[in-house]
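TL;DR need structure tokens for one chain.
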Amino acid sequence: MYYVYVLYSAVHQKTYVGYTSDLTRRIEEHNSTGERGWTISYRPWEILYTEEFENKAEAIRRQRYFKTGVGY
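>> reply
TL;DR here they are.
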């Protein structure tokens, strides 16, 4: 299974969209002190929304839709 997730930072009023095969681990990574990248500046994150998919290609397609609004 793969998951598309939307995170929300209430402190900074930001959202982040990603996909993963291990949702619990990935959320913990986003909130950990060892995480690198864009999400590090906007901790703490909470899960706003999730969807489950049978395969990675479907999850990536849905993530792109959320990020662009058209799925490209």
